[in-house]
Amino acid sequence: MSNVKCSVNLNRTKLIIFGITGLFVAILIFALVFSTKQSPQTQVVGDILVWGVIDEPDIINQFVVEFKKSYPKVNITYQKKSANTYEKDLINALAAGRGPDIFYIHNTWLPKHADKIFPDYEEYMTVNSFRDTFVDVAYNDFVLGDEIYALPLYVDTLALFYNKDIFNSVGIANPPSTWEGLLSMVPSLTKKDSSGGISRSAIAMGTAKNIDKATDILSLLMLQSGVKMFDEERMQTTFDQRTMENDIEYPSGQQSLEFYVNFSNAKKSVYTWNNQMPYSIDAFLEGKTAMMINYSYQVENLRSRAPHLKFGVSLAPQPKGAQQSVNYADYWGLTVSKTSKYPDVAWFFAHYLMEKEQSTAYIKMASKPTARRDLVNTQRNQERELGIFAQQSLSAYSWYQPDNIAVSKIFENMIELTASGVSALSAITDAARKIDLLIPHP
């Protein structure tokens, strides 16, 4: 019996020794195999051309330098293009096969340029992850079906700029938070000369030709009023009529158009603007209007052009009693061209720029409001003016536009026609039919 026990013990000892030896050999082989493989960063290879339109090269190039420290075999070239010809140049370059790998895309461009884009890889970001990372308007603008077509660099919104000295001079302590409150301030803030002409306006609203972002302001008013701009299939405009959908009634945009134009109607009590006034930004700089509505980049513009101007920025006015805020978005994102030889590397770099660390640095250098949910509160608490715009990004909306430039011109014409005396109903009906003609049909 003792001999049997001894034999069993010896066998167990041999098995343990063989097991340990086998494990050691396996680990050695595993280490040898993987030591011959390239590390992930040396596998990322490619020449990437980036076309931008709003950012100076020194901003983007700082990120390129840091990226190359980890991925030295990627060559990235950033080129800033002229805003005036950017879209035309982009279309021509892509058609000729010499376009960029990554290009800046406006939040309204996807309807007309989706066919030029190589959608993002699900391995890099899922649609659910996109929704969790970025504010809602970016999902609505840059995601089609179950595919991501662009990543937002930032999200800007319209806000109220007001002249503190003018407000103080008439005894108004705070800017209006509602449109009704704004209307009540118009008589106090408006100044007229001896002949009845406007020498100082309360707010730059009412016309299109001499007001910066007039069509965006009107879009804001329509969306705040609950106007449904398009039908569900995006095959017909609906902003010119009352519509019923899923037992919900949506108002016509006619009332919003009339509200906007009334500021330039001499027969109305809120008359405070006309086509003889300077361009809205110049009027604000010169103290000829107490308020204007515009985007965040005007903060730096105003400071550089008029260092001594005392102005403030507040949240865009909302309708009195509104249950939720509605703001209007305007921003750019990054996307990858369908003609890129390295779409995987291009999207990899785009995602690198959108990571929290890089995004934090970008919005500081570029003075932009964040598009990332996890940075909204930080920017709101740390930056006085930009924090306003960051806060509004959470309630920002846009609307489907088959061609944003053409739509803008149609809206401008609609405003000017109404301001000239044409009925708002006629003007908005005509505008809707003209936009319908822009809709691509299968």
Automatic annotation (TrEMBL):
Pfam families: SBP_bac_1
Entry keyword set: Membrane, Signal, Transmembrane, Transmembrane helix, Transport
Any GO MF annotation of the entry: maltose binding
Statement: the UniProt record of this protein carries the keyword Transmembrane: yes
S-adenosyl-L-methionine among keywords: no
GO cellular component labels: ATP-binding cassette (ABC) transporter complex, substrate-binding subunit-containing
Name of the protein in question: ABC transporter substrate-binding protein
InterPro entries reported in the protein's UniProt record: SBP (IPR006059)
Record-linked Gene3D superfamilies: Periplasmic binding protein-like II
Lineage: Bacteria, Candidatus Azamiibacteriota
Matches recorded under SUPFAM superfamilies: Periplasmic binding protein-like II
Chain ranges passing through the membrane: 15-34
Domain of life: Bacteria
Similarity annotation: Belongs to the bacterial solute-binding protein 1 family.
Biological process according to GO: maltodextrin transmembrane transport; maltose transport
